[in-house]
What we know:
This protein is of the alpha/beta class. It has one domain: 3-Layer(aba) Sandwich (Rossmann fold). Helices cover 53% and strands 11% of the residues. It has a 5-stranded parallel sheet with strand order 2-3-1-4-5, covered by helices on one side. Helix 2 packs across helix 4 and helix 5 crosses helix 8. The longest helix is centred in the middle third of the chain and has 20 residues.
Amino acid sequence: MKVYFIGSHSTGKTTLCRYVSEKYKIPMLPELARIILAEWELNIDALRVNLDTVDKYQEEIISRQFIEEKKHKDFVSDRSFDGLAYAAQHSRMLNKLLKREDLQNYVEKLKDDNTFIFFVRPSRATMKQDGVRETLNWEGIIQIDAMCKFMIEMWGLKYYQVSMDSIQERVRFIDSVLKKC
C-alpha cells in the first residue's frame, strides 16, 4: 500500500502521515523539502533570493522523492508530485520538470489500485506556522492548493479529499478509506 498526503503547506499533512504510519505499520517518507533545506544549511528566506539555488532545490526535491519511494514497497509519504506546485510558484523549472520522462512514469504508478492519494485542503482553522516554510499567507496557500488540484485533474488521478477541520474527523475518514484495502 502506498499512501500520499498532498496539498499546500500548513494543512496538517505531516500529522496525518504520522498517524497512518503508526496505525498501519508502514514506513513514513518525510517531506524532503525540509531535509534538503537543512542539508544545504538554508532557510526559506535565504533560498527565495537566489533563483539558481531555487531551481536546483526544486529539481532536487522531485529527484529525491522518486529515489526515496523506490526504496519501499509500502509507505506513507508526506508529499508527492505536489512539489511541482512550489516549482511553479517559486522557480523557473516547472517546464523542465514536467518534461521529465521519470515524472510521466511516476504519474502512471500513482494510478495503481494500491495507491491512495489524500488531498488535504487548506482551512484557516488548521493553519499553523511550522518554522520552516515562509510566513503563513492565506492567498499563497490557496494558490498552491489550486495548483495541486489542477495537477490531480490534469493527470486523472483518483484521490480522497480531506477538508474537515477536526483531526478526529480526518482520522475517521482516512481509516474508512484505508480499511477497504
